[in-house]
Design brief:
CATH class of the largest domain: Alpha Beta
Distance between the termini: 13 Å
Strand content: 15-25%
Low-confidence stretches: none
Helix content: 40-55%
CATH topology of the largest domain: Rossmann fold
CATH superfamily of the largest domain: Glycogen Phosphorylase B
Number of domains: 2
Number of helices: 16
Strand order of the largest sheet: 3-2-1-4-5-6-7
Order of helices and strands: EHEHEHHEHEHEEHHEHHEEHEHEHEHHH
Oligomer: single chain
Radius of gyration: 21 Å
Length: 357
Amino acid sequence: MRVLLAGGGTAGHTSPLLATAAVLRDAGVDVTCLGTPRGLEVTLIPQAGFPLELVPPVPLPRRPGKALVMVPSRLRAAVKATGDVVERVCPDVIVGFGGYVSVPAYLVARRRHVPLVVHEGNAIPGIANKLGARLTTHVATSFPDTDLPHARYIGLPIRREISGLDRAVLRAEARAFFGLDADRPTLLITGGSQGARRINHAVSAAARDLAAAGVQVLHAAGRPDEVTVSPRPGDPPYVVVPFIDRMDLAYAAADLILCRAGANTVTEVAAVGLPAAFVPLPIGNGEQAHNAHPVVQAGGALLIDDAALTPAWIDNVVIPLVSHPGRLAAMSAAASGIVGRDADERLAAMITEAAQS
């Protein structure tokens, strides 16, 4: 079987694509990926050992202007380039994960009568997948209440090093890896690959209070210059790094994570039972708050508005929580009970089903 996987631009599209591609490859499927020259896929997909075909991006602006006028010509060029890829690859099924590159893939699949599978990563679907879901009956969602035609809730495919993670087993190794103490309450901070200024400033401003409470911090800042910490002798570690490659070890090291609420992050931390304080990105269509809602409602996480995240909130809420093993254990159990770890296998099965239909 030959499969063409279309997705890229952000980790939100690329990560589930790669997780699914790994399952398909292990099953003997010939996998080719489709992306654009502008996204993370240019680096991540070849690193994972998959062939990558590139087509021109087709940004879909939300406001009138010159960029909107150029959409039809850009789309025609992208559809032609995608058609050329399909002619070379001859896929038995095309799979789209949303984003710019998926729209031409969906249109080519419809035009050439190639079976199509659509996977939506967020609780609120994007424009590309709203289109794709109208062109096929094979539609998978990451969250149970996503409003798409023919939707089947399967979850979000996540990396095997995360889906198979046992935090307790790896805790000592993980804390040693990052230079943390073995037994202190540990707070993990991340705002995504580019960091988050509000999170960086609020947490670093509360550094003295965290230290006074005996809490150590692992802070993936994106922009380390936004984090100003002046540790005193005897303070617990406050480790600042630009980016964390070994998120499995970061999750294992942490007792609590303070982070954005992208679909991948919400799914990963819930799947491994890591209690969270989610700070949804305050732009876009509000999908991050919707992503976090099932975990928050189940009791596995807190939700705090970006504007309300202050050093005082960290003092009054985060420090007491990360210092309370009983509350953390209850949150961990609640989170891990609502998110499955096998969405990669379930989506691969759905792709096989579509190819054979």
